[in-house]
Amino acid sequence: MGRKRTLNYRELRSYDEEEGGPRKDEEDVEDEKEDEDEDEDEDEDEAADAEGEEGEGDGDGDEEEVVVAKPKKKKPPAPPKPAKPKRSRAAKVVRLRVVWGVFNNSNQRVATFEYPRKQEADEHAAKLSTDKKQTFFVQPIKEPIEEK
């Protein structure tokens, strides 16, 4: 029998680290593309300014101009939204009543009897067992009370 093929998560993680960090969402990638476009425009403007300054020089040529890259501007984080107060609702109280249920082997309810009539429920289960030659049993059931 052949071995089951599984992904090697260590290798995948190493690829992510080489690329510069964890995987990014589509929105983050789109935002970075926009930032890169803006940075390229700024770089072109800086290069044009540097060329203009070089042409205006005294002509000594001994001095080297060092072009200092400007740090990237970070967008200020959005102010946190005020937290909404938690709204707790009072649980609706449902009143329950107990009745006796007669069930067959498939746990299907065959008949129900009021709580004080347990003896009748037992007799009904015994009668069904003898007539149909199947097993029937009695079990208490909690039902919601229907208020009028």
Taking strands numbered 1, 2, ... along the chain, how are they ordered across the largest sheet? 2-1-3
Helical coverage, percent range = 25-40%
Broad shape = elongated
Output mean pLDDT. 75
- Strand proportion, as a percent range, falls in 15-25%
Total DSSP E strands: 3
Gyration radius, to the nearest Å? 40 Å
Largest sheet geometry? 3 strands, antiparallel
| Helix/strand/pairing category | alpha+beta
Order of helices and strands: HHEEHE
Distance between the termini: 68 Å
Descriptive report:
It is built from 3 helices and 3 strands, in the order ααββαβ. Strands 2-1-3 form a 3-stranded antiparallel sheet, with helices on one face. By secondary structure, it is of the alpha+beta class. β1 and β2 form a beta hairpin.
Produce the secondary structure layout.
Layout: H1 9-19, H2 26-55, E1 96-104, E2 109-114, H3 118-132, E3 136-144
Antiparallel strand pairs: 1-2, 1-3
